Amino acid sequence: MLRLIRKHISIGGGIGPSWLRISARQALQVCKLSTSAEPTQQSNVNEASLYVHWPYCARRCTYCNFNKYIRRKEDTERMTACLTRELKTLIELSGVSKIKTVFFGGGTPSLAPPSSIQTILDTLKAGDLLIPAAEVSLEANPTHLETSRLRGFRDAGVNRLSIGVQTLCDTDLKTLGRDHTVAESLRCVEEAKQLFPGQVSVDVMFGRPSQKLKDWQTEIKQIADLCVNHVSLYQLTLERGTRLHKLVEQGMISTPDGDTLADMYLAALEVLESYGLQRYEVSNFAQMGYESQHNQAYWQCKQYIGIGPGANGRFSRETDSSVREARIQTLEPDNWMFEVEKYGHATRKVTQLSTKDRLEEFLCQGLRTREGITHKAGLVVIESTP
């Protein structure tokens, strides 16, 4: 269990350095001493969050190893039909009657036509599943094409936007393989603030090749000056198999050392908090009341259903609500669609989570947050597992 704590307590869920990982002794002390926060309540078996994976991208970023596929002539109608069918199947399997948050991720979901997003949300509404105050988030790249679709996404039912700005340096955008410019990012953020007032988040990355601390201090202030309500701050991780990892391995480019990374993180923490963006999780900052409800559901180990190629889920079946299952969907889009059309869903792997499994997740997720974990909350996990 303690090995898992070391593995997972890092910036951005695996996107982070060893200097931020807590020791085993520290973890045990947190378990014993953190008693002031309210315990996480057992997730209602009739409630869940929904993650929707749109797998297509216009290009592959040099650092990315996510489950994504470069657009050719994807059949968006078929993909949308399969997403709605898998949604119906897993909703029926889980017995969930209320969806509290929805997150469209990818891939690049902002490349999906707004009509596809609306079809999925309409499916939830038709079954009286989506609660009136549901948070509906969508990840967007700030290209001109995707910015032009923002109004359509809002009209489809999206009420929160997460924009992949990543950096305000055009040279670094090219190094990262991004297909937008700084000017496009700024236009997208301004448009989003008009369409989604108070519900705009930006993703920004530090630890980029050849990045200097002084430049980062200037850049993070520029990010804060965008006047958004939420910032997700990620340290660049060199993932094996990516182009960027290969370039670093070959000595063609270099990235900041560990001490510089630590200084960059602390500099960002100081700047963002001075702008009223409080750190509520290792890599997430928000003004009070504007935290991501969907991500909090993950960190609080609540139920969520994942649909789409490679999506993950954690929920109990209606026939046995005492057992939480971890589910992984088929990765490759064409194979995933074939299985959904044949079986109604494309679940590739199902693992029943034991009490130990759930406690490990509880520790690894909870210790990422400002509230931390409590003994009482741990008992809730134990008592809800046979």
Description of the structure:
It contains 15 helices and 14 strands. The model is unreliable at 1-43 (pLDDT under 50). The protein folds into two domains: 1-31 and 354-386; 47-298, Aldolase class I (TIM Barrel), CATH 3.20.20.70. It is 40% helix and 22% strand. The strands form three sheets. A nine-stranded mixed beta sheet has the order 9-10-8-7-6-5-4-1-11, with helices on both faces. It holds the Pfam family Radical_SAM. GO terms for molecular function: 4 iron, 4 sulfur cluster binding; coproporphyrinogen oxidase activity; metal ion binding. Belongs to the anaerobic coproporphyrinogen-III oxidase family. HemW subfamily.
CATH superfamily of the largest domain: Aldolase class I
Low-confidence stretches: 1-43
Strand order of the largest sheet: 9-10-8-7-6-5-4-1-11
Radius of gyration: 20 Å
Number of domain modules: 2
What is the residue-averaged pLDDT?
87
Helix content: 40-55%
Q: What is the correct CATH architecture of the largest domain?
A: Alpha-Beta Barrel
SS-based structural class?
A: alpha/beta
Q: Give the CATH level 1 class of the largest domain.
A: Alpha Beta
State the distance separating the first and last CA atoms: 19 Å
Residues in β-strands, percent:
15-25%
InterPro entries: Aldolase_TIM (IPR013785), Coproporphyrinogen-III_oxidase (IPR034505), Elp3/MiaA/NifB-like_rSAM (IPR006638), HemW-like (IPR004559), rSAM (IPR007197), rSAM_sf (IPR058240)
GO molecular function: 4 iron, 4 sulfur cluster binding; coproporphyrinogen oxidase activity; metal ion binding
Family: Belongs to the anaerobic coproporphyrinogen-III oxidase family. HemW subfamily.
Pfam family, one: Radical_SAM
